[in-house]
Structure formats: structure tokens, C-alpha cells
Amino acid sequence: MSLVNGKAGPANGSPRGVAADQLRRHNLATVLEHLHLGGAATRSQLTAFSGLNRSTIADLIGELSDLGLVAEARGTTRSGPGRPSPVAQVVPEGAVVLAVEVSVDSMAVATVGLGGHVFNQIRIARSRGQFHPQTTVNDIAEMARPLLSALPAQYNLVGMGAAIVGIVRRHDGLVHLAPNLGWRELPLGEMLADTLDLNVPVHVANDADLGALGEHRRGGLGQVSHIVYIGAEVGIGCGLIIDGVPLLGSAGYAGEVGHMFVNPDGHECRCGATGCWETEAGEKALLGRVESLSAVSGLEAVDAVVKLAAGGDADTLQAISDTGHWLGVGISNIVNLFNPEVIVLGGLYHRLFEYLEHSVNEGASRALHASRKMVQIKESVVGQNATLVGASELALAELIDDPANAAN
Amino acid sequence: MSLVNGKAGPANGSPRGVAADQLRRHNLATVLEHLHLGGAATRSQLTAFSGLNRSTIADLIGELSDLGLVAEARGTTRSGPGRPSPVAQVVPEGAVVLAVEVSVDSMAVATVGLGGHVFNQIRIARSRGQFHPQTTVNDIAEMARPLLSALPAQYNLVGMGAAIVGIVRRHDGLVHLAPNLGWRELPLGEMLADTLDLNVPVHVANDADLGALGEHRRGGLGQVSHIVYIGAEVGIGCGLIIDGVPLLGSAGYAGEVGHMFVNPDGHECRCGATGCWETEAGEKALLGRVESLSAVSGLEAVDAVVKLAAGGDADTLQAISDTGHWLGVGISNIVNLFNPEVIVLGGLYHRLFEYLEHSVNEGASRALHASRKMVQIKESVVGQNATLVGASELALAELIDDPANAAN
DNA sequence: AACATTTGTTGCATTGTCGAACATATAAGG
DNA sequence: CCTTATATGTTCGACAATGCAACAAATGTT
Fold first, then answer.
1. Looking at CA atoms only, how far is residue A146 from chain B in angstroms?
2. Residue B266: HSE in the Cβ half-sphere, 13 Å Cα cutoff
3. What is the CATH architecture assignment of B20-90?
4. From B225, which residue of chain A is nearest by alpha-carbon distance?
């Protein structure tokens, strides 16, 4: 939570100084974020966590309560003497967002409230054909309508977040390139805003970036603040959390790892190069290694591989292991560059994690010893919904960062 | 400048809430940093920059002036009517640091004051043999002594920063591994503190990380906040600035790019793999490509290459160009991962920049189009002293971040 | 020389947090 | 059941920092 002044300032650039109101904003945000991510907490816990005085905490909670974002209840059973501290928790309907995910094999929409409460969620399969963008946007609107009307009375919609399998410019939601959807230079942010017409801010981001955000905030990683999320459907996506903050790059294009070079003797890639990470560790690479499948492709083929692996088919296990090896080799580069604490595997790798784990670790042993030793390679905890959860967190962030101004 | 509370707090973790004193600290830091990096400024310019009230700026400058960090002078010639605004500027001797650099071919020590004012500097050649660590530390102490006694009266020494060609754990200055110095798990921070006995905080960091910091802060890059610095002596080093903040990784080991994989048909590397970036674009790769030099090695060989290139020797130019190509290929991976605005080439690449530029750009064209288009590959502006400057900035950062508490 | 303009200076208002005193709710012990 | 210790909420005044308005000062313009 940075404390950069957000109010309108003098002409040249944003003001760097900070006044008392920004201090209040920061403290409100800190308390609300803690409740949002950590669940219910007593006032005395909040006092300890924040380092603020109990009078201040009382005041902050009072304001959040007036805003309809937090509610207090009588403290439950406690140990030890002393006046019981009331338990504060977020009110989910106090701030609701619409989360959207457009992946290769499915599309999902969810209504999510403060605290990560999912009111409702729909996921539909999507064939791999390329659809006209406006058709997709209309489908999203169609899926969203019933979810929005099913929300409890008096809900407060504050934003919308969309995760897209593609390269997205953050500040305006322009989809620069989404090969698997057939989109290019598409002003998706605008289109969603216009078509859904919800009168709330629309955020669009890359799916892996949001997968990382979802895992960071809801993946039970506690105080871990350097995380790399790696997911695959057709291509390989990578999202990075550095010091607790998403790494976006200057335009939002950071984390494009698919065409990192890993294998001297690899296959030719659609990008023209040879031995790209995607070519060696992506879905197509995996499927190509399972001989009995050569005819099938896409999601059905992946499902078949999962089934074969579960059945203990030696060929399939070897194919998965080979894929894991190249996955690990790429990971070693990433470990050297970022020195993260955790690498989270999502998407395809999440489905196959138990069969991949060993060979990934073996492949990653190429990395610098000191960095390698301290990093843990794990499977996604949030699982299939990591990107959708990330999209909701993205949309909620604006409110959490400035509860007083964003709530109404 | 993050506004995280730094004062002693309750037992579990650092406090997240912020009180008025931290606000003051933030504003003092903002003003001082602006003067430190941007040079002299009138009060009215500071008012515009910070967004704070004129009374507040007057008060802040008053405090910085009382601390001996800033001095005001009568405003010089101005255009337009109105009462002239006094010009504030930093007092270099108000906060002085000792900056140290231990590279492969040289060692340097400098006394640097606020505003980046270099009081004195010594650089000595260093042969490539491996020296006992304590000998090196003693040499540094020896070099530092005359510099410290040559400082103006009443100077205030506030810290020391050391740049090391090796992998350094940030929080305690442990040199995990420095192959070119022959060091391993060496508590250099402690050794410097004990031997120099200056009674100030000692910071140790990787040379490329500090090169990046030096370029970011004194490289005339203005508001650019996503920078990758790439330097080479024997190996390739990489330092990253993300959103204006150094990327260190969870232990400080981030940016280890030397063994990134780039060339399928490459040479064998000392790490055991084949086609590492270092093997293809490092010093040895370059020297190996210049046939007429094959016997010579080290700094003399590099000097010879520079001379041959300046003389227009076709073989040499081709060798440099080939090296540049592989440098560019590695850069394309980095561009894809970080989406930076500027890549700064230092060290060996700085010396050869005019001969490399074209082939580096060609090699980098592999990168994602959108990211490639927006990044500029430049040569270092600070030049040979980038890492030394970075070391001084590192040591000064503590004071700038909290002028009131760190100044005395 | 009068005026407009910009900026420093001063004193008070406002905002936000802290701290002390008091009130309240629980557990433990007799 | 009553008393006591303890932890925490509540209240109100103190304190710190910034903002604001009125005034003063220094400069350019006419």
C-alpha cells in the first residue's frame, strides 16, 4: 500500500508530498486490507497488527462501518481474562465486483464481494475457434446479467476485472495481442464498459498476472512476498509478484516468457525461432510426446492425458516427465532472475502436478545454487479459479486502497 | 519512498499503520531527495513539485537547514514579476559516505556527499589473481584513510556502501559467491565494519545492481522508472530498477543472468552447461572471436580489442558484432520478462558500445514486438563509475529516507 | 510612482493520532 | 456469590503536521 497522494494537484505531475488526509486513507486501507485478506479479527488484534492506538482503531473501524464495508459482532469465546474485544469483519455486499475470465478452453464470470466472498459463478466451455470480439463481450454480458440480479439487496458494485489470455496494456485495457483468441489491438476495456454499461471502472489484465495475484492473496502463502506464477493452456503464461506488488513492466507487458530460449535441439516455434519454452514445455509439446494421442488435440487430448497418467501409463508418464524437465529448465532462468520464494504452477501444470513435480525440480537444478535452495515449487492452491480470483482482487483493489472515496 | 512505519512497534512484525511523525518523515525525505537528485530548486518549485503548501515547504526546509543538510541562498535572476523565491540546495558535507568498488580489474574508493558531490576518488588497477579477503579489506582501509582526512571540517559521515563483483545477500552483506575474486560465504559487511571501524552502517551489494542504481539516479534518465543495467567484466551482471525501485529478490540474489541459455550451438560454460549467455556474449567469448589475440587475456586483451576496433580492423569489428548479437539475444529474453523502458549497457559493453549497437539491436529483435518497440538500448552515461556512484547512493539512501533521525 | 504579481511570513483552523483516566466485561480465586 | 486482576472499549484533551487566509515583501510593468 503505497502512500502516494492521489488527489488532484498542480499541473506538472502528481504531488509527492503527503498531508493528513492521505495518512487517514493509508490507515483505513491497511485495516480494510487486513480484514479483506485475513478474515475476521478482533479490534485488539488489529491494534497489534497495525501498531496504532486503540482509540485510532476504534475510529477507523467506525468509519469503515459507516461506509458499510465492515461490521462488528460480539467477541466469541476467548482465553484469558479481560474485556472481550469485538470481532470486526468485512461485509461482502459492501463492495462487490464482477470478475471475468476469458481463457482458451473456457469463459467464466463471477460476482465477488469484499473478503473474497463468491456470490455466484458461471463457467462455460469454449471451443478453440476464434470468435468475433463483440460476440465474446456479448456472451460475457449475457452471463453476467443473472449473476448481478441474484445479488442480495443493497449490494454496492464497485468495479469489474477481466483476465484475458493475451498481452494487455494495463492502463486502458487494450488487448495488444491474444493469438489464441485471434485478437489484436482490441480496446477490450472500452468494449466491456460500453456493452455491460455498469458505470464502474473496468480493469483488464493478463491471465497469468492475475493468477499470480490470486495465489498471492488467496493462496495461503501468508507473508511470502516474492512469487512467480506459471500457468499454461496453449502457451505458457507467467505472472510475478515482487515484494508483494505485481510486476507489470512499464506498459503491463512484463512476464512474457513463452519464447524464452531453452532447448538447443528443440522444435520450431510459431514465432519462427527454435526451442522456445512454449515449444518444449507447452501443451502441444506434451501432447506431441504422447504417441497414442497424436490424432487428438485441444482440451479433450489433455483430458485423455490426465486419465492415462492416472492409470499409470508408462509412455504418458514419461511424456509428462519430459515436459516437466523443460518446464524446470525455464524455471531455472526465472529463479536466477528473480530470486523468488515460491513458484506456483497453475493451469495445465496444476492438473499434472503430481506427475511433473519430480522432473521439474530436476530441470530447475540448473539454477544458481543459493537461489535454488530457497525457492519452493508448489502447485496452485486456488486451482482452476486462480485467474478469476485475481480478476476480482484487481477490481477490488481500488476500493481497498481508498475506502472513503471509492465506496460511494 | 515508501511510507512504512519504521519505529519500534509491538512484538509480532512491524507496524503497518502510520502516524503523523511518519508523514513528516515522508515529506522531509521527498524534499531532500528532490534536491539531492535534481540539484538546486527554489522554494516555489518545491511547492509545485510536492503539492504541499508554501508554509509547509518553508517549515520543511527550515528543519533540513537546521540539520545542516540544506542551505538557502538568495534567488538568482528570474523572469517575470513577483517576490523572488530563495534557492535551496543540499550541503554536500552535511552527509558524506564512503563508496567502495571491488571489481575484477580495479578497486576504487570515493568520498561522496549529498547531491552526489564527489570529494575525492581513488581507483587502482587490480590484477586478476585471487587475493585473501582480509588483504583486500585492508587495502580498502588504506585507500580510504587519506580520503577521509582530506574531507572538509565538520563533515558528517553517515554510511558506507560497497559494490562487489559477486552475489551478495543484502541484509547483512554476506558475499555468497564471487568467483572472480575467489570468495565464498564471506561476511564482508562485518569485515569492513570491523576493519574500517567508522561507526556507520555498512551496505554491501552486487556491482550490477549498483550500476543500475547509479544510472537510474545520476544517468540523466529523468522520470524513467523501468531500467535494466547490463554490465560485463569477466561475467555478465544485471541490475534491475522496477517502478523506480531496485529489484533485489527475496535475498538479494536477483538479476543473475550469466547462465541464461541463449545459444544452441554455443561453447561449454564453466557452470557445466552449454551456450550460457556469459559463454556467448561475455569477455572470453569476445576475445575468443578475435583470432590475432588468442594468446593474450584479461584487461590487456580487452584494451587491445578496443584499439583494434578503433583502428577499423575488420576481424575485430566482426568479433564485436557477433558478441553483440548474442548480447541482444539475451536482452530479448529480459525485455520479454520485464518490459523495461531503457536498457543501459555498462562495463565492457560501454567501452565497445559504438561497435556493438547495431548488432545488439538486431539480436534483440527476437523480443515481443510491443515490448521491443518501446525499449531503448543505450550506453551507460555514468560510465566506468556507475557502480561506485550506485554504492554512494545506496549508502546515502538511509539518511535521505529519514533525514531527522539519521542525520545525528 | 503606482500597480500587478508572486512568494515569504504569521497566526489560526483543521485533521488525525496518541495518551491518560475512566468504564466495562471477562476469568480466576476465595 | 463476591472480589480482584486483567484486558479492552470509550472519552476527552494534548500534540503534531498541514492547510488557509491575511498580510508583508520584493520584483516587473506601465
1. 38
2. 32
3. Orthogonal Bundle (1.10)
4. A250
Judge contact between A364 and A372, C-beta under 8 A: yes
User: All 3 cell numbers of residue A353?
Assistant: 502436478
- Rounded CA–C1' distance between A52 and C17, in angstroms: 8
Cβ neighbours of B16 (radius 10 Å)? 21
Q: Which of B358, B355, B347 is nearest to B380 (CA)?
A: B347
Which residues 75-94 of B have a C-beta within 8 angstroms of A?
none
Residues with CB under 7 A from strand D: A 17-20, 42-44, 47, 54-55, 57-58, 80-86; B 20-21, 23-24, 27, 51-56, 59-60, 74-75, 77-78, 80-84
Give yes or no for residue A274 having a pLDDT over 60.
yes
Average pLDDT of chain B to the nearest whole number:
92
**Arithmetic mean of pLDDT, B123-141:** 93
Same fold, A20-90 and A93-211+387-406: no
Provide the 3-class DSSP secondary structure of residue B247: coil
CATH fold, domain A222-380, is: Nucleotidyltransferase; domain 5 (3.30.420)
Interface of B with A in 125-144 (CB under 8 A): none
Q: Which of residues 333-352 of B touch A (CB under 8 A)?
A: 333-334, 336-341
Question: Pick the residue with more confidence: A38 or B407?
Answer: A38
Q: Are strands B227-232 and B342-345 parallel, antiparallel or unpaired?
A: parallel
CATH number given to B93-211+387-406: 3.30.420.40
35-54 in chain B: CB under 8 A from chain A? 48-52
Q: How far is the CA of A160 from the C1' of D20 (A)?
A: 39
Phi and psi, residue B219, nearest 5°: -100, 15
Q: Where are the alpha helices (DSSP H) in B119-255?
A: 133-149, 188-196, 207-218
Q: What is the pLDDT of residue A78?
A: 67
Rounding to the nearest 10 degrees, give the CA dihedral for residues A91, A396, A339, B171.
-60
Banded pLDDT at A94 (limits 50, 70, 90): very high
**DSSP conformation class of A72:** E
Cβ-Cβ contacts under 8 Å for B75 (sequence gap 6 or more): B42, B84, B85, B86, B87
Structural contact between residues A6 and A13, judged by C-beta atoms closer than 8 angstroms: no
User: Which alpha helices (DSSP H) does A339-385 contain, by range?
Assistant: 347-351, 353-363, 369-374
Chain B hits for A337, CB-CB cut-off 8 Å, are 238, 254-257, 260, 334, 337
Helix (H) or strand (E) holding B320: helix B314-338
d(CA A318, CA A12): 60
pLDDT value, residue B366:
87
Residue with cell 562495463: B347
Residue B242's CB: how many other CB atoms inside 10 A?
24
CB burial class (10 A; 0-12, 13-18, 19+) of residue A222? Answer: exposed
A67 Rama sector, left if φ>0, alpha if ψ -120 to 50, beta otherwise = alpha
Give the CATH H-level superfamily of domain B221-380.
ATPase, nucleotide binding domain (3.30.420.40)
Of B15, B52, B339, the CB nearest to A253: B339
Q: Where are the domains of chain B?
A: 20-90, 93-211+387-406, 221-380
State the smallest CA–CA distance between residue B228 and chain A in angstroms.
Answer: 11
Chain D bases closer than 7 A to any CB of the protein: 5-13, 15-21, 24-29
DSSP state of A87: E
